[in-house]
Amino acid sequence: MTLTAPTIEDLTLNLSQEIQVRAPLEVTFAALLEQIGPQNETHDGKPLPMKIEAWPGGRWYRDLGDGNGHFWAFVQAIKRPTLLELIGPLFMSSPVVSNLQYRLVGAAGGTLITFRHTALGYIPDEYKGGMSQGWTHLFARIRKQAETLRSGRVAGG
Fold first, then answer.
1. pTM exceeding 0.85
2. What CATH number is attached to the domain comprising 113?
3. Tally of domains in the chain
4. What does the pLDDT read at residue 155?
5. Higher pLDDT, 103 or 128
């Protein structure tokens, strides 16, 4: 049996995205918290019950009820409505730590979200392939909710 040591590329992940939202900072930030929390869902539209305690040291976790669940991250920093930073293993049950940064700035006609996901540890290849798709789905939901609220319509209806 031959074992090979993983390379640094095998053990790291760096994803970045910029998302333009046609809604004010405060509305976009609220939509972000709502979509990673109680309105969270999988990339194929299934509910993913999550809780976000939106304060420094607060938890972000999957709530399965009856005291069951899966810890995803701690809130490392929050500066409403311009920054949310999370740190933890996310959905991975392996030796890994992720840092998520959502930076929001006012931009012409709305808000620009700059997102960065950096991770270190054992990240299975099938997870790496699906993360970009999952984050893209999340940002589409954030954009839709924020732009719907901005226009005065009820979200989801």
1. yes
2. 3.30.530.20
3. 1
4. 44
5. 103
Given the DSSP bridges, would you call strands 68-79 and 83-88 parallel, antiparallel or unpaired?
A: antiparallel
Expressed as residue numbers, the domain containing 113 is 13-149
Q: In terms of Cα–Cα distance, which of 116, 126, 110, 142 is closest to 36?
A: 142
Dump the DSSP string for 64-90.
EETTEEEEEEEEEEEETTTEEEEEE-T
| Nearest Cα to Cα of residue 131 among 103, 86, 85, 92 | 92
110-121 vs 68-79, strand pairing mode: unpaired
- Whether the CB-CB separation of 52 and 103 falls below 8 Å is answered with no
> Of 138, 75, 139, which Cα lies nearest the Cα of 111?
139
In a domain, 103, yes or no: yes
- Name the β-bridge partners of 69: 63
| Contact residues for 35 (Cβ-Cβ < 8 A; gap 6+) | 138, 141, 142, 145
Residue 155, domain member (yes or no) = no
